[in-house]
Design brief:
Bound molecules: iron/sulfur cluster
Order of helices and strands of chain B: EHEEHEHEHEEEEHEEH
CATH architecture of the largest domain in chain B: 2-Layer Sandwich
Number of strands of chain B: 11
Helix content of chain A: 25-40%
Largest interface: A-B, 29 and 31 residues
Structural class of chain A: alpha/beta
Low-confidence stretches of chain B: 229-248
Mean pLDDT of chain B: 87
Number of strands of chain A: 21
Oligomer: heterodimer
Low-confidence stretches of chain A: 629-638
Number of helices of chain A: 20
Strand order of the largest sheet of chain A: 2-1-3-4-5-6
Shape of chain B: elongated
Number of domains of chain B: 2
Largest sheet of chain B: 9 strands, mixed
CATH architecture of the largest domain in chain A: Alpha-Beta Horseshoe
Number of helices of chain B: 6
Largest sheet of chain A: 6 strands, mixed
CATH superfamily of the largest domain in chain A: tm_1862 like domain
CATH class of the largest domain in chain B: Alpha Beta
Helix content of chain B: 10-25%
Radius of gyration of chain B: 19 Å
CATH topology of the largest domain in chain A: pyruvate-formate lyase- activating enzyme
């Protein structure tokens, strides 16, 4: 294998943040290029700062490098300044470890966890010197694989990629490696390899399926082109997180990145059942890491990295069984290690689980920011989205925070939710003002930052049939809130660009025809669409016109119950009729309890795959969860496997 | 106790920023469980004081860091311990204890010596340009700061300058540049050479403080040797110094 380093090095002093391109992180694997090994290039299609911390890629990177028959490097999208130089100097996309050209790997595997990165995906394929469409690539070219949450609707990128992997990647990455190694030995063709890959659970090979459209241009489904292909591609789920204590050696970057701290995943999955939340729906059931393993991973991670902050990550960390004890133990360990103060952050804290107890534990060291996500302003709206937290819960949490010395609290809200009225929107301002008032009793400097995102209905949620609010409507609601808080001291409002929300909608629920739109936007210079300075909605609407598609049809339109959805051939385990019933319940303001502590309602995520929740406690966490305090009729028993000393 | 550390920076890691270096140093002390004094307040920071920032992309054989430690068991083994805790390319050469009231690096460093590779002109042209520069009574340089341009005479900041010889890609210069009220950066020196030159490899070889009897480094040579620095890679022998400078 070759290295582009001698070509690259003379230019690095001229670009912004050249440390993005040098590798050298603690934890980087220096497994030397060797043609005998199956080689993977794990790539994040955005900047190094955003891509490096991606836990999914780090986990797979370690698993592959631990294998005797494989090796992996990493790559990130070069920023536009370096890209211009690379194109002029004919420097291809490269790995940061060995500066090996991307096209020399067997697989280039991308993490797609944001729909706005799709144009960067094809830009990276192009920078690698490869044709962007899978049909134009030869048998010698690397396989382009993609994974990540966005791949629960892979159709918008289906024409670009060879394989889309659904769900947890820990096991399937090795199975794929073995199939590739076997192909080499047996001399199978690329087509034969792809057919075998399509037989692996969790692997979708788009080129083997043909989309169908009606005469009036409506998407009506997708057909396998060969006998024996699965009609539905099921996701992968790792049953026991305890067996996967990865990353064991988290990458410690030399330069600042987002989430620049030790990150330890404490559980995967969430069954609170918030209806807007795709991450919660597609990662069911809940699988907790044993508290003792969390503790040792934190301890060894802090020692190894020298970080002064650890985040316990999950979709709702306050739900972790005995979270208070775990945080307390981590703090005690940190004190005895003598490395200096350590702060623990719990991203995605739920208000109904945040009490003075956790607040007191967290503020033993440096206080990091506190963010709560009530998501909606009124109880009515929160019933519709099944985020069953009461106003009192929010006030208690905020009170706990301010009383324990925090001065700033951040609140996340969504606008554009189903059946939302202006009353619901304006209630966000009232909540924020009430929180500031609570805080002012403790400190004059109390302030609340309200962060507003426009709601994008996502595949495999009960809201997947809902027509997204238009950009104009979202902007109108933002303006309502700006007006309502203009004179409110201590309330700061931040919002996401409604136009970017529309594009996220295009890429979230579009069908395979969106590939042409993504290509068009890319050809017109639309890369780094997550960055406001590079985002331009006009490119997307023009591209939609040229492709003969409308934003109205793809984004704003409500779907019918009997219409074919572009992701119907994909399965996250969830029964479609469960989702539909939940959608109807939402409109009727009927809540759904958390199935960790109440009877299973057979959404399909466990029952379909023969797995279970893995939790350490049979009782709900502080504050309860989604109506677990209600008197519910007993039904089936709860499929909960308790963690504990294994027999 | 106050400790001064001298370290070098070579290879790919030369592309990190000053801020990155501070964070890496902070983590290294934490990894070693050497307690650093933290500032008070809502967001405590370790009490570090770096001298002159090193430009992204430049190497150095003479970087310094002053750090306030709660305690330290073995000063002698600190260089080796720290080097192990730091990423490849950052090597700690020496550490000394400072008096509590010692002047800061910012205050004491008066000039730095640089090896500067310039690319884009034959050696004869570079030699001519260097001679012309050395002979010039004044060297006006246009500087831009916060949108305002001003013209500064930088000639007094160029204390010594000579051509060392050819490199693979260009020509190597050795320069002693002031860091007092008037200062000049290597990139600016290249500009005032008035040739169409590009910057190649740049390495800070020394930082000097003015002391009676000549220039002294913030950590002097005897400490470096004691800490095991190799003479071969550290051209610290007086013979390697620009003894007969062409500039006054
Ligand atoms: S299958 Fe039952 S227990 Fe499992 S996530 Fe669905 S509702 Fe909950």
């Amino acid at each position: 294998m070759t290295s582009v380093w001698p070509l690259l090095e003379p230019w690095l002093a001229q670009v912004q943040k050249p440390a993005r391109y040098i590798g050298c992180e603690d934890g980087a694997k220096a497994k030397a290029p060797d043609p005998a090994l199956v080689s993977w290039l794990f790539t994040y299609p955005d900047t190094y700062e955003i891509g490096l911390p991606n836990q999914g890629l780090q986990i797979l990177y370690e698993i592959i490098n631990e294998r005797a028959d494989a090796r992996a490097d990493r790559a990130y999208a070069p920023w536009t300044d370096l890209e211009a130089i690379m194109r002029l100097q004919a420097i291809p996309l490269f790995s940061v470890e060995h500066h090996t050209p991307a096209a020399e790997f067997d697989v280039i595997a991308f993490n797609l966890s944001a729909e706005l990165t799709y144009t960067n995906l094809i830009n990276c394929i192009d920078l690698a010197g490869l044709p962007i469409y899978s049909r134009d690539r030869s048998a010698d070219d690397p396989l382009i694989m993609v994974g990540g949450h966005c791949m629960f609707n892979p159709e918008p990128v289906a024409d670009f990629v060879d394989v889309a992997v659904l769900g947890d990647g820990e096991e399937v990455v090795s199975e794929l490696t073995e199939l590739i190694a076997h192909q080499r030995q047996s001399g199978e063709t690329k087509q034969q390899l792809l057919v075998s890959i399509a037989g692996l659970q969790g692997c979708y090979v788009p080129s083997l399926y043909q989309p169908q459209y009606s005469n009036d241009g409506a998407y009506i489904g997708l057909l396998p082109t060969l006998d024996g292909l699965p009609g539905t591609v099921e996701k992968r789920t790792v049953a026991d997180l305890a067996q996967w204590p990865y990353p064991k050696e988290q990458l410690i970057p030399l330069t600042e990145v987002v989430h620049d701290r030790l990150n330890v995943e404490v559980f995967r999955g969430c069954t609170r059942g918030c209806r807007f939340c795709q991450a919660g729906m597609i990662t069911r059931p809940v699988r907790e890491r044993p508290a003792e393993q969390v503790r040792t991973m934190v301890q060894s991670g802090l020692k190894r990295s020298g970080y002064d902050e650890v985040a316990l990550t999950s979709l709702s960390t306050a739900d972790f069984s005995s979270i208070e004890n775990t945080v307390g133990a981590i703090m005690d360990d940190a004190d005895s290690m003598g490395c200096g103060p350590v702060s623990v952050s719990l991203p995605s804290l739920r208000v109904d689980a945040f009490g003075v107890g956790i607040a007191a534990q967290l503020q033993r060291a440096r206080r990091s920011g506190l963010t709560f996500a009530p998501e909606a302003g009124t109880w009515r709206m929160r019933q519709i989205i099944n985020k069953l937290i009461r106003e009192e819960d929010l006030y208690e949490a905020v009170e706990a925070a301010f009383s324990q010395g925090w001065q700033r609290v951040k609140l996340y809200f969504l606008i554009g939710l189903p059946s939302e009225t202006d009353e619901d929107t304006l209630a966000i301002a009232d909540l924020a003002k009430a929180c500031v008032k609570l805080g002012r009793a403790h400190t004059k400097r109390a302030s609340v930052t309200v962060s507003i995102g426009g709601f994008v209905p996502k595949p495999f949620t009960p809201f997947q049939w809902f027509g997204q609010n238009t950009a104009a409507e979202l902007q109108r609601k933002v303006n309502l809130l700006k007006d309502a808080t203009r004179r409110a001291n201590g309330v700061n409002i931040k919002w996401h660009d409604p136009k970017a929300t529309v594009v996220e909608g295009i890429n979230s629920r579009g069908d395979r025809r969106i590939s042409a739109v993504i290509e068009d936007v890319w050809r017109n210079g639309g890369t780094f669409q997550e960055w406001s300075e590079h985002f331009d909605m006009q490119r997307w609407t023009d591209a939609m016109d040229r492709a003969g598609l409308t934003v109205e049809d793809v984004v704003y339109r409500h779907r019918h119950q009997d219409e074919a959805l572009p992701w119907d051939h994909i399965s996250a385990g969830l029964h479609k009729d469960f989702l539909w019933t939940d959608w109807q319940d939402a409109l009727a303001q009927v809540g759904l309890p958390d199935c960790r502590w109440t009877p299973c309602y057979d959404c399909g995520a466990c029952t379909g795959y023969g797995i279970e929740h893995v939790v350490a406690s049979a009782t709900p966490p502080a504050g309860g969860s989604q109506g677990t305090g209600q008197d519910l009729a007993t039904g089936n028993s709860v499929p909960v496997q308790l963690l504990g000393p294994k027999a | 106790m106050k400790v001064r550390v001298r370290y070098s920076r070579h290879g790919r890691i030369r592309f990190i920023s000053h801020r990155d270096t501070a964070r890496i140093m902070e983590r290294a002390f934490r990894k070693l469980a050497i307690p650093v004094v933290y500032s008070q307040g809502f967001s405590p920071r370790p009490k570090f004081s770096f001298g002159l920032a090193l430009t992204v992309g430049h190497e150095s054989e003479a970087e310094y860091l002053d750090v306030d430690l709660v305690s330290l068991d073995h000063l002698e083994s600190l260089p080796q311990q720290l080097t192990q805790a730091l990423p490849d390319g950052l090597t700690v050469e020496a550490a000394i204890q400072l008096d509590q009231g010692a002047a800061s690096l910012q205050q004491v460093v008066k000039c730095c010596q640089w090896r500067i590779e310039v690319i884009g002109a034959p050696i004869e042209a570079v030699m001519k340009a260097v001679s012309a520069l050395v002979a010039a009574p004044q060297l006006p340089l246009e500087r831009e700061r916060k949108g305002k341009t001003s013209v500064v005479d930088v000639r007094p900041a160029i204390l010594e300058l000579q051509v060392v010889g050819p490199t693979v890609h260009g020509v190597e210069l050795l320069a002693l540049l002031a860091n007092e009220d008037l200062s000049i950066r290597p990139s600016e020196l290249i500009r005032v050479l008035a040739l169409d030159l590009r910057e190649g490899q740049v390495c800070r070889t020394h930082q000097f403080t003015n002391a009676e009897g000549g220039r002294v480094e913030p950590i002097d040579r005897s400490n470096l040797i004691a800490a095991g620095a190799t003479m071969a890679t550290n051209p610290l022998a007086p013979s390697a110094w620009p003894a007969e400078s062409q500039a006054s």
